[in-house]
Amino acid sequence: MRGLLRVALLFMATVIVGCSAETQPAPEHMSFGVLGATCASARLTALHDAGVSVVELPLAWDRYQPGAGRVDHHYVAEVRERLNSCREAGMAVVLSPGLHYPPDWVRGLPGGVLRGSGGGAPEDEGAELVFSAAARDAAQKYLAIVASDLGFEGIAAIRVGTNASGELGYPGPSDGGNEREYWAFGDAPQYGIGLAEGVAPSPMPGWIPGSGSWHGRSVTDEQVQRWWDWYSGSTVDAAVWQISELRKLGYQGRVHVPVAGRGVLPNDKAKAIEGGLDGRANPDGAQERGLDYSAQFAVLATLPGVDVDFTGLDDVTAVRAAAAVPRQEHCLPTDTENVLTDDVSQWSSHRYTSALARRAGLGLVGENPGPPDAPFTGGSPQSHSLAEQLRTAPGYAVECGMTMFLFGFEEDLFEEEVSGVSTEDYKEVIQQLKPPPQH
């Protein structure tokens, strides 16, 4: 296995150099880590030996606060022990507060669940932090408890997101609702009932995307554009709100905003607006998810210490882009200038999204999707296996200018017979990409 991996790494390096002569080894300040850390002593030793220096520690809100006004102190003690173990091992920690795992009592609050344009409610979806004042109040109190219980020492970054995957955006178009479901149709966004402070209600209450009329009049492109800007803007504003709450609590470190896919491409958006968001020019379902990265990254760039965390390095779009002629998966130095003018339809998601982030002046980190047959990884029959992701994704992170790569997931590195990867394999990848320290 490891011999084959070494051959594959050498082949990968040859391919990258042949396709992108600007690719260089990882800079000294780049760090390699894992997602889903357990902070178990034996694992920390093996990870450290592999060259891992950062771990993502996930929390679960539903376990932390299983009841309103109640904290599970056994769970808090478990989390504190894990965090201390990682700190003592010299690992930097990326903390995931777990707002995307809300307890049932939060989902039961007024407006605590998103409502779709077709009347649906997302299954197993996170709390409604985009519009609901009650859900935001509960989340703010939870974050304050976490800050008090755990502190921020040794925390390299904190992740913020708005959907069930912990990423930026609304649920997918059919996540528990009807096909092509948009998710801003509760009382708060539509009528201002229970609306969070500082959040704007719909500029067209009652209008449903795809409808050619509103209040008996034809809908104009300008009105559709205004509605879209509100819909997509509201979700990034929810991420900004979380960042603001963390700063109020005294956190001054980096903030990671996980994103997946490419969002709505510029040419597709123009066509979609002309069609009243009726489903045209929507190949990735990004319209329903409210993903307009060019505009949203501009908002995030107004805040200090924010990194875009691309969660799909070597996803299925990279596989397809690698098969294009010429190949379209590699990040190039010219991408930042060309991303808004070139035909980017065949670019890999990581290439396009990284270029937008760099253009906005945001930091960049990344991670591979994880096992293609696992939930929330976006896997398909075309997806690379986990072993193939380990061979390619870290190299993409380097050439796209990312400062951190997180492998998904720690568990898989310690179940080689099932996953096909190990800490020794990860070690070889890191040694291949990272130059030895200068003395």
Topology summary:
Elements: H1 2-19, E1 31-34, H2 41-50, E2 54-58, H3 61-64, H4 73-88, E3 92-96, H5 104-107, H6 133-150, E4 155-159, H7 187-191, E5 213-214, E6 217-218, H8 221-248, E7 254-259, H9 266-274, H10 286-289, H11 293-300, E8 306-310, H12 316-323, H13 335-338, H14 349-360, E9 363-367, H15 386-399, E10 404-407, H16 410-413, H17 416-419, H18 423-433
Parallel strand pairs: 1-2, 1-10, 2-3, 3-4, 4-7, 7-8, 8-9, 9-10
Antiparallel strand pairs: 5-6
What would you give as the CATH superfamily? Glycosidases
Task: Give the CATH class.
Answer: Alpha Beta
Q: What fraction, in percent, of the residue positions are helical?
A: 40-55%
CA-CA gap between termini: 33 Å
Approximately what portion of the residues adopt beta-strand conformation?
A: 5-15%
CATH architecture: Alpha-Beta Barrel
Number of domains: 1
Low-pLDDT stretches are: 1-23
Order of helices and strands: HEHEHHEHHEHEEHEHHHEHHHEHEHHH
Radius of gyration: 22 Å
Q: And the CATH topology?
A: TIM Barrel
Strand tally is 10
How is this structure best described in words?
The protein has 439 residues and is α/β, with parallel strands linked by helices. It has one domain: Glycosidases (TIM Barrel), CATH 3.20.20. Helix content is 41%, strand content 10%. The strands form 2 sheets. An 8-stranded parallel beta barrel has the order 1-2-3-4-7-8-9-10. It has a two-stranded antiparallel sheet with strand order 5-6. Strand 1, helix 2 and strand 2 form a beta-alpha-beta unit. Helix 1 packs parallel to helix 18 and helix 8 runs parallel beside helix 11. The longest helix is centred in the middle third of the chain and has 28 residues. The chain is globular. The N terminus is likely disordered.
